[in-house]
Amino acid sequence: MKLLITIAAATLATPTVFAGTELCGQWNYTETYDFTMYNNLWRAFDDPNGSQCTGLDSVLGSTFAWNMNYNWAGTPYQVKSFPNAALKLNPVQLWNAMSIPVTIEYLFKHSKNTIANVALDLFTKPAIDGEIEYEVMVWPAALGGALHLSTSGKPIKTVSIANIDFTLYQGMNGNMTVLSYILDEIKQTFRSTSRHSSTNFRTATQSTQRST
To answer: pTM of this prediction?
Structure first.
């Protein structure tokens, strides 16, 4: 399975000097001026024979392009990894954050048995030195019945983000409240000016049949 991702965010310009980097170790990561890219094989132990590598294609100005190849089996619907590119952003108070413009474009080549999601991931805290209180996820893609967190098992409501309709779910991850905006129809390009304080783009690989 292969995922190719391009992220454009409002950041300072950086040269394209990081292309060709590939991460295959469980906790491998690499940094550019504006982003940190993680391979993050969070629960790789669920499939000891599985593998995943995350590669950096290019960094040009505020555009960060990366790819990921993986081969997972193991327990169905059990998350194996969270490969992601995290934008370096100083914390700000929500009412001072007018917008964080983000454009996501991706191409996901996968088998019909793939279970995975693509998401924009954001976190908030009550104070800079406090614990994360809320995680806000926007899912442009949910493949094969990929599961979101939900306390009730039912949506809270339907909302519109960037003129796109999403179904909103609420669940808990420990003491952290998770809000998941799920797009019913897969969309390969997503643009947003959402009001949030930190941002991270990730794909969650849950359980798949092995690629050939």
So the answer is: 0.82
